[in-house]
# Entry
Amino acid sequence: MAENDFVVGIAEIKTATDPGRLAAYGLGSCVAVTLYDRVKKIGGLAHIMLPSSRMHSQVSVPGKYADTAMIALFAGMKKEGADFTSVEAKLVGGANMFVSIAQQAVPIGMRNASAIREILREKGIRIKGEEVGGSQGRTMFFSLSDGKVEIRKLNQPNLVI
Amino acid sequence: MANDSKPFTEFQLDALREIGNIGAGNAATALSQMVGKRVDMSVTKVLVLPADAIAGFLGGIEKNVAAVHMPVYGEMLGIALIFFPLERLPELSAMLIGRKEEDPNNLSELGQSAIKELGSILTGSYLSALFRFINLQLIHGVPSLAIDMAQAILDTVLVELEQREEVAIVIETQFLEDDKQLTGSFFLLPEADSLKKFFAAFSKSLGLPSDG
# Structure
């Protein structure tokens, strides 16, 4: 952990400007989505648990659901002064770690990723990179100086997207 | 949630420890039969942990662990997890299948199914001991195994329960076979409504007011 690292926990959303990194540890079926304004070096990260808030009567934590989290993330980026014409997105996580949960038609991790992709498409934001699915957990660090995302997995070399 | 997640009193923890001891006794019998030699089991710790303290209990967010996962059904819904320290999987496999598997990240099919079976035995024993005490019928589904970062396993289970705040009832068990000591930690994570039901049934069995 470097001095300017901020950890974004489950269902949390954080926006910040260069320098520093935003980190999400131990993503299982959660998906972390990063937004980055490459020109102004403004970044945001949402650590999303579930695809939709529509089945839930009370939404006390907007960061839990893709639909409400993305609205909050867009608002946060706007507040930092991001220009959405130069914002790009990356997706990390959405693993399916236990076979017994996989008996659902589409695993929750993949449904999380699909929901986020759809919202990004509607907003006209390009997806620059993805490291989604599989059966392994991930830890990620998102650099606010260049938008690169470093990913760690158990017994695998680190990846950068 | 605040009311549900308040720590257990010593009295309640003692009762949980007693339930744990009964479960461990039954599990030891089942395990001894499975491996064909005597294995003793005892409860070393009983506690109730909030979700954000679970990874710390297991050794840290990026600590690599083996976790057996089982859905829990019946009169309470939730997830049961059994965690084993990764570095002790070689000894655990030697105890279970009589062959030491040196690389815990690369277990054979047989090694994996033996660990799942152990998870299943422990979970079944603890659930039936709980059932007898609180009179709620609990059964578990098919076990699956993941070897990964503690936090990633927890993240997956919280998503499954659709909860960010969660409380786990933890029973840490020690196995003794000859001179070898191994541990496994049983975690029961009830869904929010089931947690309320559990607290009420547990309090009633202890002769306490059911809201306490």
Q: What stands out?
A: Chain B touches chain A through 31 residues (CB under 8 Å). Confidence is low (pLDDT under 50) at residues 1-5 of chain B. The helical segments of chain B are 10-35, 51-58, 89-97, 109-134, 150-161, 192-205. DSSP finds six helices and seven strands in chain B.
